[in-house]
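chain below, 406 aa
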Amino acid sequence: MSQLASEAPDWRVLVLARVGRDAQVICESLAQRGLACRACHDFAELLREIGVGAGAIVVAEEALGRRSLKALASALGAQPPWSDLPFVLLTGSGEAALALERTVSALRPAGNVTIVERPSRVVTLTTAVETALRARRRQYEARDVLAKLQETVERLDAERIVRERFVSLLAHDLRGPLSVAKLSAQALARRPERLDERRDLALKIDRNLERADRMIRDLLDANRLRAGERLAIDVRGGDLVEIAREVVDDLEVEGRRVVIEAPERLEGFWDSEALRRALCNLVTNALKYGSPDTEVRVRLAEDGEQVVLAVHNWGKPLSPGDRAHLFEPFRRLSTADPQRKRGWGLGLVLVRGSAEAHSGSVEVESSPENGTTFTIRLPRDSRPYVPRRGAPVVEAPAEEEPRLQG
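prediction:
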């Protein structure tokens, strides 16, 4: 029974016996079987130790009076649903039937009672205790299963709340551009003879439908990533520096400086649109969460056969909690300004998805001393790692082993 030996409170055998050295002798016998035991000096100590933790209880009946019996039954009755603390009751030889029945009746509804009549052999008592501890082990296993089940239920409940909020947010955000497009189209329909003069309405319709389409694309891509799939990308030749400049120009940042540190050109083979979206998300986050009176820096560089794209901002560093869930969908950073419009929490999911679709990676470093930097690393040429439609994903080619000549 050495596997049951433990000094942890949950595995202790608590013993209360008031006659002579009974409690000490019982503990010595159990210790020889590798069982942890604690002899309690009085009933109050027994109750305290039950609260700390116990694998089984051994009590001599003479140690239980009417008041203590009631208090013990109350303590056992307060156990959590998974617990049925085993209770070994030592009775005297020829114990009055009425007194024994009273004790058992008081304890049985609140605990798992085993009766051992004295005088008894040591093996009888130790066997009863070992059996009680095995039953207790199964209870602890049930407790662990229930705890995991509770965690799963809480997680599913949290996900349900997130989904409900997301659906509400999605409906609200989509109504904006679709309403503008609808009103503009109605204005054109009312005055078709002035269609040539209302080019601005046509452009407004196009812009807002593009916004709605972009929202839907982001959502579909995020769901694809959650399902364990890679983003579908179209790899062609492009200039990463040109992409970065277009992103910064399109953002039209007022009162903030976005500085690009890059060579004159940085050409390679990537999906320009996917990288444009990833960089736009990183710069937007840097502006949103960084200090408003500092610069946001976009650095592009070569690193052997790879290229590096890094976005840095100063401000409150990311907390450990944020970093643990940084790339999960529908998450919002704790550093977000509550006054700002709430986003969907898909930006960083799509950043990582874009990087991994190119067989690249994204990492983050954040501290009060150095600020926050998101770094994307990509192969200079992503074509070998991107499957054609319907083809399996090709991992990075391994170096060929040298062959023996002759």
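The CA atoms of residues 78 and 110 lie 8 Å apart. DSSP finds ten helices and twelve strands in the chain.
thats it, cya
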